[in-house]
Amino acid sequence: MNLYGKYSHSLAEIYFILISISVAKYFAQLDPSQCGKTFNEPNLRIQGGVKALPNSWPSVAFLVFQYKFFLTTNGFVTTRTVRGECGATLIEDDKLLSAAHCFKTSITLSDGTKVTVQPNIYHKDLNSMYTIYLGLHDKTSIRPENVYNLDSFKLHPNFDSNTLVNDIAIIKLEKKATFNEKIQPACIPLNVEVNFVPDAVVWALGWGAISLDSSVSSDILKNVRLKFIDDKYCGSIKNDELCIGDLTDGNDTMKGDSGGPVYMKTKDNKQVVVGITSRGVFWNKKTVGIYARVDSYLEWIYDARLIAFKENSAVCYSSKFFFTITFLTQLMYNY
């Protein structure tokens, strides 16, 4: 007896189809006509890391980690503060993507002392150690409307802090952003069409170090024109990573750019976030970059929204459980 009635596909195949459809439906709701907008055309023709024009990349965000704690050394207690900077990309009015390694579980001080990052009298929880800045161009001119607190964040469950594999995180803000000429969501690679072809031009952004041998970060947002390059230049990378660089002039993202976006432009001038800055490697005395490939994580992004952020209190199980129940219900109905 055929227990599946008129269904000829395996349960696994239909399960996968249902997941794909549900994920696609969610991302289709992110109206492509309402994402990737810009109100000031970027200086796209300029190669090398240059200062971006104001409001030309309105989905890029600045992420700051600031941890204040007590440190006991030789019986003396002192107060220390450690700061870290990353980038992020706005994809909804209260959701952003960044790199998982931007969120700290421990820090190592200059003398080699390792400190566990945990809540204390200065920080009620981990979220309070981070601040997001939207609509920001110059770090020296921060205004109250630029500042957003974190409600929560979730790292990819298979993130490896040693190898930086699956280096992606999703952030939820405490309050929704109001879209204007300075703040807009980026498009993602499902609700618009992009072509991943060799030598395709992309743009990376950030407030990172001003040069490879400098620890001084840029006050002004910078953009750099790069290209997709052969994976061989990045060594051993995974299918869900992108190898991007500039083999001619050696331009690349720098320390402090981590978590920031890599954009492609569509034919109708939409800004699409296709990569998240993860790490760099050396090739022939030049640095090239490895980036988390956004379209490889669309299902995880969908799941993270439902489970980690608990937007609907009725959602008690993973979306995979929901999809399975949906399938079985339809199966019983048609049997």
UniProtKB/TrEMBL annotation:
Keywords: Disulfide bond, Hydrolase, Membrane, Protease, Serine protease, Transmembrane. Pfam families: Trypsin (PF00089). Residues 46-306 form the Peptidase S1 domain. This is Transmembrane protease serine 13-like. It comes from Brachionus plicatilis (Marine rotifer). InterPro entries: Peptidase_S1_PA, Peptidase_S1_PA_chymotrypsin, Peptidase_S1A, Trypsin_dom, TRYPSIN_HIS, TRYPSIN_SER. PANTHER family: CORIN, ISOFORM B, TRANSMEMBRANE PROTEASE SERINE. It comes from the Eukaryota. The keyword NADP does not apply. The keyword Ribonucleoprotein does not apply. GO terms for biological process: proteolysis. GO terms for molecular function: serine-type endopeptidase activity.
